[in-house]
Amino acid sequence: MSRGLRGHVGHRTPLGGLARPKSGGQAPVDSEGVSDPTASAAGRISREEVAHLARLARLAVSEDELDLFAGQLDVILGAVARVGEVAAADIPPTSHAVPLTNVLRNDELSPCLPREAVLSGAPAVEDGKFRVPRILTEEA
Amino acid sequence: MSDLVRLTATEIAGKVTSGEVSAVEVTQAHLDRIGEVDGRVHAFLHVDADGALAAARAVDAKRAAGQPLGPLAGVPLAMKDVVVTEGLPTTAGSKILQGWVPPFDATITRRIKDAGVVILGKTNMDEFAMGSSTENSAYGPSHNPWDLDRIPGGSSGGSSAAVAAFEAPLAIGTDTGGSIRQPAAVTGIVGHKPTYGGVSRYGLIAFSSSLDQAGPFGRTVLDTALLHEVIGGYDPADSTSIPQPVPPVAAAARAGAGSDLAGLRVGVVRDLGGEGYQAGVLAAFDDAVATLRKLGAEIVEVSCPHFQYALPAYYLIAPSECSSNLARFDSVRYGLRVGDDGVNALEDVMSLTREAGFGAEVKRRIMIGSYALSSGYYDAYYGQAQKVRTLISRDFAAAFDQADVLVSPTSPFVAFPIGERIADPMAMYINDLCTLPASLAGTPALSVPCGLSENLPVGLQIMAPALADDRCYRVGAAFEAAVEPLSIPEVAK
Fold first, then answer.
1. Sign of the C-alpha dihedral, residues B408, B480, B167, B175?
2. Which of B103, B197, B340 has its CB closest to that of A120?
3. Does A34 lie in the same domain as A62?
4. What are the residue boundaries of the structural domains of chain B, listed by start?
5. What pLDDT score does A43 carry?
6. Closest CA–CA distance from residue B374 to any residue of chain A (Å)
7. What range defines the domain where residue A73 resides?
């Protein structure tokens, strides 16, 4: 898979539009002034960026996992960045292989699961509802 | 081992219908076989002996009452644990769903029950169907009956191992990037990924919604086709279900077994072979092409230049969709909850639950997906991958102008030793090299055994245009009839 790896440009690209690590440099800019985040492959994912992604994905990763995932995500993202080699500016995207559109059901009443069945797998239930931990933190 | 477990599904159904054996006897023989070998194979996560025997008794009662039986009535089946089954534990191979009992049946579960097919239990799999070996299961790997130290493929490896070990004549798998075809190939059985939309996804625990597709496993092409007809067809509960009848796959399998392939154009995909493929796999594939030629098929070589980008496109699209789909595991409605101590807020409980409940590969894919969908990266990763998907579909369209079906090896490798690739995600991902194009294009593909390499099975992949699943079965059955059947070994003590 090594042919898929582009050269290490030696800087970190920020997570565009998200909380950008303060130390992060700017993404490379091509001739049209558009940022090309795939221009750098290897070396893009730091421990801090893994921690950021983990927080977005609600994963409380351990310190050891930060190191492990930083290396692995770096290799994977380097390999998948190969999609950028294809000239596809005028190619329409395919989101689905089968072109079905506006699939609607008939507006008819139909039976649904009883409440007890729906709640049967929940970790905590109270008064016939899902019970959740508090949603506000001290700071809020 | 009882002779009953050696029978094909077709033979079992015939004997049950004629009254030569009862469905209960057949089911008990398979439960006994599971008891005998599954400690070594570990195909099953949950065996439902009581439910299976009750279903079998219902088939026998129906026959006794003179009611007509379906073509697979009384035949036992192993169900992949990603398909929900009312009252039967369903984990998707994950700790996060340990102990969860679904309150409803998937559409395919319902269809299987209505057909009198007997569900023996739920099979092991890579967690949330992410993997090629079952090593990502939270409950330990399944073992290949050909060599217990090797993987049975994945993610539907419990299902393939069950069928290869004679624990069940039929099984259900799901295939997102090859998870039916590769396990079928490396265990020496038949598996088919239907046209996307051909089999309902309602009640499949979603991994990558634009790619996931359930499909059948069997030890023969005809058995596999008969199961396909049971599960296939329009379902209003799945908005991506194709509103058309199931292609006539069983008739195609019967016709294929009794005829040659004169007039059929078979395209050998130049881009799926060569460097990186095991020599023994390529040799078995070349022999398979020679057999197809002997059967009268015209062999043409086709080029699909964008197939080389299928792997990077897939490993952006599937993680992106999974990062969204797996957000439902939030510790609220079902499954595990960790850290709910009255002090931690919901967000912390979610994070602790998902950290404890997901394995490493699932976490990796969720994070890759979160990255690829991030504002500023979306166009370069996910958007570009979707364009590549269009180009792969165009390659298929051009190839199907020159050929009626396309063929390739199903996997670049035979079954590899458990532990060999698990530490290196990319080494695992390249197992999907040959199966990914049909996944991305939504087209049907069948894997049929085509010989051995180092005494391990090799699969021939037969691909057809969308909705022409019957072509896969016709060619597969003709091929199966023309070659010496693999003799699956007894599971070692």
1. positive
2. B103
3. no
4. 3-266+404-492
5. 63
6. 7
7. 43-87
Whole-angstrom Cα distance, residue B310 to residue A74? 19
Q: Which one is catalytic: B15, B80, B122, B193?
A: B80
**Residue B402, SS3?**
helix
Taking the Cβ of residue B351 and every Cβ of chain A, the question of whether any pair is shorter than 8 Å is answered with: yes
Is it the case that residue A60 has pLDDT exceeding 60?
yes
Would the pLDDT of B225 be above 60? yes
Q: Which residues of B touch A82 (CB under 8 A)?
A: 309, 312
> In terms of domains, do A16 and A27 share one?
yes
pLDDT exceeds 60 at position A3:
no
B375 pLDDT tier (thresholds 50, 70, 90) = confident
| Interacting residues of A34 by C-beta distance below 8 A, sequence separation 6+ | none
Identify the residue among B370, B424, B440 best suited for mutation to test binding to A, counting A beta carbons within 10 A and taking the highest. B370
**φ and ψ of B450, to 5 deg:** -135, 35
Quick one: closest CA in A to B440, which residue?
A97
Query: Cis peptide before A120, with omega less than 30 degrees from 0?
Result: no
User: Looking at chain A from residue 103 to 122, which residues have their Cβ under 8 Å from any Cβ of chain B?
Assistant: 103, 105, 113, 117-118, 120-122
Neighbour-count burial of B286, counting CB atoms closer than 10 A to its CB (0-12 exposed, 13-18 middle, 19+ buried) = middle
Task: Tell me: pLDDT of A13 over 80.
Answer: no
Residues 173-212 of B with CB under 8 A from A: 195-197, 210
Residue A135: band (very low, low, confident or very high) from pLDDT cuts 50, 70, 90? confident
Residues in A closer than 8 angstroms to B466, CB to CB, are 97-98
Task: Decide if B80 contacts B44 (C-beta within 8 A).
Answer: no
pLDDT at res. B492: 74
- pTM of the entire predicted model: 0.93
A21/A47 same-domain check: no
A3: left (phi over 0), alpha (psi -120 to 50) or beta: alpha
Q: Give yes or no for residue B403 having a pLDDT over 60.
A: yes
Q: Which CATH number fits domain B3-266+404-492: 3.40.50.920, 3.10.310.10, 3.90.1300.10, 3.40.190.10?
A: 3.90.1300.10
Annotated catalytic residue B95: no
Cα-flanking dihedrals φ and ψ of residue A116, to 5°? Answer: -60, -40
Sign of CA dihedral B461, B463, B469, B475: negative
Q: How far is CA A134 from CA A122, B103, B341, B343, in A?
A: 16, 27, 11, 8
Listed residue (B355, B326, B363, B328) closest to B339, CA to CA: B355
> Could you tell me if residue A27 is inside a domain?
yes
Please tell me the total count of domains within chain A.
2
